[in-house]
Amino acid sequence: MSGDLSRDELIEQGRAALDWIASYLERPQEYPVLSRSRPGDIRAALPASPPAEGEPLADVLRDFERTIVPGITHWNHPAFFGYFATSSSVPGIIAEMLTATLDVKAMLWKTSPAATELEQVATDWLRQMLGLGEGWFGITTDTASMSTMLALAAAREARPELAIRERGMAGRPELPVLRVYTSSHAHSSIEKGALALGIGLENVVKVDVDAEFRMRPDALAAAIARDRVAGRLPIACVATVGTTSTSSIDPVPAIAEICRREQVWLHVDGAYGGTIAIVPEFRYVLDGVSDADSLVVNPHKWMFTPFDCSALFLKRPEVLKRAFSLVPEYLVTREQDEVVNYMDYGVQLGRRFRALKLWMIIRAFGTDGLADRMREHVRLAREFADWVRATSDWELMAPVPFSLVCFRYAPPNTSDADRDRLNEEIMHAVNEGGDVFLSHTKLHDRFTLRLAIGNIRTEERHVALAWAKLREAAARAA
Amino acid sequence: MSGDLSRDELIEQGRAALDWIASYLERPQEYPVLSRSRPGDIRAALPASPPAEGEPLADVLRDFERTIVPGITHWNHPAFFGYFATSSSVPGIIAEMLTATLDVKAMLWKTSPAATELEQVATDWLRQMLGLGEGWFGITTDTASMSTMLALAAAREARPELAIRERGMAGRPELPVLRVYTSSHAHSSIEKGALALGIGLENVVKVDVDAEFRMRPDALAAAIARDRVAGRLPIACVATVGTTSTSSIDPVPAIAEICRREQVWLHVDGAYGGTIAIVPEFRYVLDGVSDADSLVVNPHKWMFTPFDCSALFLKRPEVLKRAFSLVPEYLVTREQDEVVNYMDYGVQLGRRFRALKLWMIIRAFGTDGLADRMREHVRLAREFADWVRATSDWELMAPVPFSLVCFRYAPPNTSDADRDRLNEEIMHAVNEGGDVFLSHTKLHDRFTLRLAIGNIRTEERHVALAWAKLREAAARAA
Questions:
Q1: What is the per-residue pLDDT across B134-164, written as a single tens digit (0 to 9) for each?
Q2: How much is the pLDDT for A1?
Q3: What DSSP state is assigned to residue B161?
């Protein structure tokens, strides 16, 4: 017994999988968006031990459909409005077939020149699409969490006098406490990055936000000043373009000015919101980023790219390289001084060939096509917000700069506690119905519904269905 | 302009891609294993700016074939013998089509019960296949580099009295210097993990190896003792089953005993070598791992799984969870106390649905089928080693416990410096020939050729071709 499955099996089962994919994308309404599975259901349906003998791939695909799919929460469903709505798309799916086939590790230029150079080209295309000037270095990672961790590591290495690369941080009485600033509405990934790097949760300073959930530059300046007095060392600030709870936009220009003055590395988290800068009339969301040190945007969020594809842009990539580059003998190559070896810019040695899907998606849709789709998502979100605004007993909970609407059911003569309970009940009822899915946050400590639009197949009817289901659930709950 | 590409385009271009994949896998000899591209060639062949209008997917696929493929170094080629030889396989490729279509983020149980539970099941199947006892928790990551970084973070968190999660490591005079031990032949990922965590390169203690490149337990014990005397705190040791240069196997049982005595977290890096434990007669390579705290093996290395799929096993997952768990309001779910939410065990929030391909591959090949294929790779490597041993002017440079052969051309009356030059010349000549690809390392500071076998489509004829090309190149070089 040796070798791979046969060509016939590849073609036959590959075509069967394609047919399934086509039906799946065409008839999402046949699937409840939120899986109806209960904890343990899927495990119970699967054998506890692996088979000794190989099984026909057709059987495995049948079990995929029967056993696995019912346990899937359908992120790629046009009525998935939770978290940030994302989607993969036909060119992205086909790109992933090819990526899996080539099975390239995009680590050294030599270990695939095309993977490296296409990553340079595709991230540079993206840079242009976002309206960023020249002089940014692009690298893809798996997630914004990783991009941000790398940016924070670069911020730390931007102080070479601390000698953290060589000597580490522990047991060095001469080192000051290192501080990172972000808003109280920033994503948890900033804290996770700080955890990993050994900066410590209590050294992630949560700067106050204004009434529209945007970081207050005066509060940032004051926090930095307090830390300076206390002998702590401010090393990085993370501003967000499109926070997770409300998609608020921190005032990057004012923050950048403070960071420049204070010599603090400014990283901009545009994981969700950044890609809207592809749409000319939304280019302003990246105002001030030209003065930042790094920026992350996620094509796998709002640019129809199958997960994973996060893009990290750096002004001074050499700082990140200094933080992570290690070239053991078995990875030495003759051309290493004349090429980019992406392994030098992060923790991972092996790296997926993500540039292929990014390139295929940009080409298949074109920059105008991508912008049109995203513009439509914003239009739909604003329309939904209008419906909320126009309906008594409902209220918006935050501005709607992008395609995320924060709102709640707020019938008169109910306490905030009652409203919390009602909205939580409404959310679960709607999600359990299976037609649409949405998630929540808390704003001013109040339970808030979130409807996020971003799937390439989302149409007005899906948004209208969400609104109908929400009102039905509210009527039942009240 | 809205929506995804049409069903027809998906089917038509998906089938075209499948046909290309089938030909690619069937006729690898049509592609030079090492790309002949020169630095800058691919960039020069691509437009400097993205297209405004979408282009037919057929055109993009044509350009993939014409422009990108010539720049690919063919990791999935049966005559790719460099680094550690890897491969994807038909069930893995089809799994990735489905993964890209579902586009699930395997972060919370709720955001896809099947992704979470299949990850539990597939990693538990893998645990059984490796002959590990019960009581291990499995999680997939993208790379062994990340798995090891997480293991080291857990080792740090295993000392809660240090309060590193909350307070960090810098500016705390009361903290001791933290030390990590590994052998001088360990992979660079251990140092990268230590860099990221702020432990510092100089605190990764490179323990001496014996004549067969295995960590010396006495040297480990002595290094720990020296650090204790100096007031440094040993926190982790990384032992390797299958080092990168030679695939040597550290004596895990003796190392585990020292680690237990010294209360040092033992992480075993079996990224390449660990999966051979699937073959019953090689199960011994994981002897002693039952006394370790964590283990990484990479199905994307020697188990025919498309990159990425690394599996991290932990005895005390709660320690890793304590290191990284953060649950902001928008990720709170009702069932969070009764399920595994994999986002709690690492830096990344979004996670690929890697379990699907792992499960499909185990089922399609069966544990016996996987073992048979890996056993054959070991047989081929030993046969190649026999050829080297039996040929004057050539010599083995290290034992061959697995499927990696370290060797060199060593004609009589040549100095070591001459031999270095000759072998480097041979390697480049062979690689530039395009029929086979291999890489190198240095052993005892001497340039050493490495031939690694691990591709599912590698047959004896490919190995024989490598040997013939090496001898031809040696004859020309001499």
A1: 999 999 999 999 999 999 999 999 999 999 9
A2: 53
A3: G
Paired residues of A448 in beta bridges: A441
Ranges under pLDDT 70 in chain A:
1
Vertex B338, ends B335 and B341: CA angle to 5°? 75
**Which residues of chain A does B167 touch, with a Cβ-Cβ cutoff of 8 Å?**
200, 202-203
Domain boundaries, chain B: 7-74, 105-352, 362-477
Sheet holding B446-452, edge to edge: B394-396, B404-409, B446-452, B439-443
In Å, what is the CA distance from A301 to each residue of A354, A407, B105, B235?
Answer: 14, 22, 11, 38
> CA–CA separation, B51 vs B55, rounded Å?
8
Dmax of chain B from CA atoms?
75
Pairing, β A265-270 against β A294-297: parallel
User: Quick check: helix, strand or coil at residue B358?
Assistant: helix
| Paired tokens of A205 | 């300073």
Distance CA B14, CA A90 (A): 9
Between chains, do A331 and B188 touch, taking CB under 8 Å as contact? yes
Q: CA-to-CA distance for B282 and B160, rounded, in angstroms?
A: 37
Structure tokens at A76: 């790629």
pTM above 0.95, yes or no: yes
Q: From the CA atom positions of chain A, what is the Rg in Å?
A: 24
Query: Torsion angle of alpha carbons A105, A106, A107, A109, nearest 10°?
Result: 120
pLDDT in tens, B222-276: 999 999 999 999 999 999 999 999 999 999 999 999 999 999 999 999 999 999 9
Note whether B102 and B473 are within 8 A (CB): no
CATH code for the structural domain at B362-477: 3.90.1150.170
Nearest to B21 among A97, A126, A170 (CB): A97
CATH of domain B7-74: 1.20.1340.10
Indicate if the alpha-carbon torsion angle B227, B229, B235, B237 is positive or negative: positive
C-alpha span between A216 and A213 (Å, rounded): 9
Strand partners of residue B265: B236
Could you count the other beta carbons within 10 Å of the beta carbon of residue B393?
Answer: 14
Closest CA to A297 of A315, A282, A309: A309
- Cβ contacts of A337 within 8 Å, gap of 6 or more: none
B275 touches chain A (CB under 8 A): no
φ/ψ of residue A17, rounded to 5: -65, -40
Question: Is B105-352 CATH 3.40.50.300?
Answer: no
Q: Alpha carbon of A248 to those of A240, A276, A386, B365, B451: distances in Å?
A: 8, 13, 18, 50, 54
Chain B: residue whose CA lies nearest to A27: B7
B53 in contact with chain A, both atoms CB, cutoff 8 A: yes
- Cβ(A403)–Cβ(A453) below 8 Å: yes
Burial class (CB in 10 A: 0-12, 13-18, 19+), B475: exposed
Q: Where are the alpha helices (DSSP H) in B140-249?
A: 144-157, 164-167, 188-197, 217-229
- B421-430 pLDDT, tens per residue? 999 999 999 9
Closest CB to B178 among A60, A170, A459:
A170
- On the question of a common fold for A105-352 and A362-477, the answer reads no
**Rounded distance, CA B297 to CA B289, Å?**
12
What are the Cα distances from residue B459, in Å, to B379, B380, B387?
A: 11, 8, 16
Radius of gyration of chain B (CA): 24
> Are A102 and B76 in contact, with CB atoms under 8 Å apart?
yes
In one-letter notation, the amino acid at residue B39 is P
In this complex, the residue of B17, B142, B171 whose CB is nearest that of residue A348 is B142
